[in-house]
TrEMBL record:
PANTHER family: ALPHA-D-RIBOSE 1-METHYLPHOSPHONATE 5-TRIPHOSPHATE DIPHOSPHATASE. The lineage of its organism: Archaea, Methanobacteriati, Methanobacteriota, Stenosarchaea group, Halobacteria. GO terms for molecular function: hydrolase activity, acting on carbon-nitrogen (but not peptide) bonds. Coiled coil: none annotated. Residues 51-383 form the Amidohydrolase-related domain. This is Amidohydrolase family protein.
């Protein structure tokens, strides 16, 4: 394959906070060089009229779920063909909005593993997918759709099965959640022994562990056991934040599912138990995240199935008082680190995948520019 030249108004590196060069040189879908000009006798392959940001990384989502339709667990139980078609449409919304990489957090029937393979093979116009396989939750636990996993031995087998089938990481439920009425958002779902087995088996196999954890004892035991990312983190207390201090482990913010009118509220407004939790979670989340950001905990963002809404996550982080730099990093470099894919994506540099989002404005002058991409490029090709 020959070289491609993508012309932009400037290339933004989220960690260096600067605009440099304007030409991205691509070969076989990877960036080989950033330049100031196109060599003589060479034509520009893709002309753009805006700034280039790294393709966005959604650090937490699910392919088949639509929160605004309600009963998310029921959606996970859908027939395989139904789930696949709905997921295809959902993922297109994400890609169109600039998400070129997505870390998935659990599907039934191997749906996410199949979708990830289809995307790699060029059959599916979707973000690059990092699947977890079926998520781990115990009998009666939050997030249980068809599969429950109980006891250390079954946990180890489940992780081995997922990884054998292509899982990129392990997702387990450390606490209850907001979108169902199965348990308090702080009560641990697994015993300490089971959590230790999850972390040990995952790390032994070389994959990282994402823990769904809002707060309380469940979140603390996850952090102490050595999980790699905390998902949601809407009620993390002092003790848990202390345990996180000084580590480069990320907390993944998922705000729009709770705050956007098309989130849980749209689907589950008629469930008083869920709506009471939504109101409580909004209040506690604001406090917990303000503290967490003050303490410089590493953060990244995910849509949690709010397909196409990653820019709303950025807007929420900005509303909490972060700088544009931190907010942009949370969907680029930091999200790539959290997802353990920063050797391939998250910044525009030689050796990384040519995933770009072209935006109208300078991202530091107007970070909301991420809401309206001019073009999305994945592996060197314009995909949206
Ligand atoms: Zn989730």
């Amino acid at each position: 394959m020959s070289m491609e030249y993508i012309r932009t108004d400037g290339i933004y590196h989220p960690d260096r906070e600067e605009i440099k060069k304007s030409i991205v040189v691509v070969e076989d879908g990877d960036i080989v060089e950033l330049r100031d000009d196109v060599p003589t006798d060479t034509e520009v392959t893709i002309e753009t009229d805006g700034y280039a940001l790294p393709g966005f990384v959604d650090a937490h989502s699910h392919a088949s779920i639509r929160p605004w339709e309600g009963d998310q667990i029921g959606q996970l139980r859908a027939d395989a063909a139904v789930g696949a078609v709905r997921a295809t449409n959902n993922l297109w919304r994400d890609l169109e909005a600039g998400t070129t990489t997505m870390r998935l957090m659990g599907e039934e029937r191997g749906l996410d593993l199949h979708l990830a393979a289809l995307e790699r093979e060029g059959e599916l116009n979707a973000p690059r997918l990092l699947p977890s396989g079926v998520h781990l939750t115990p009998t009666g636990g939050h997030g249980k759709a068809l599969t429950a996993t109980d006891g250390s031995s079954a946990i180890r087998t489940r992780i081995r099965t997922n990884v054998e089938a292509g899982a990129h990481h392990v997702k387990y439920f450390a606490t209850g959640g907001v979108s169902s009425d199965t348990g308090d958002v702080g009560r641990p779902l697994y015993t300490d022994e089971e959590v230790a087995a999850i972390v040990d088996e995952s790390h032994r196999l070389g994959v990282h562990v994402a823990a769904h954890a809002h707060g309380g004892r469940g979140a603390l035991s996850a952090v102490e056991a050595g999980v790699d990312t905390i998902e949601h983190g809407g009620a993390l207390d002092e003790e848990t934040l202390n345990a996180l201090d000084g580590s480069d482990r990320h907390v993944i913010g998922t705000f729009s599912i709770l705050h956007h009118p098309r989130g849980i509220e749209a689907g589950d407004a008629d469930s008083p138990a869920v709506m009471a939790k939504v109101r409580e979670a909004r209040e506690r989340g604001g406090e917990a995240w303000t503290t967490l950001l003050e303490r410089d905990v590493a953060v990244a963002l995910g849509t949690d199935s709010m397909h196409g809404h990653l820019a709303d996550e950025v807007a929420h982080l900005l509303d909490l008082g972060t700088s544009p730099e931190v907010a942009i990093r949370a969907i680029t470099t930091e999200a790539a680190r959290a997802a353990h894919i920063d050797h391939r994506v998250g910044s525009l540099e030689a050796g990384k995948s040519a995933d770009l989002v072209i935006v109208n404005d300078h991202p530091l002058e107007n970070p909301h520019t991420v809401a309206d991409p001019q073009a999305v490029v994945k592996r060197g090709e314009v995909v949206a």
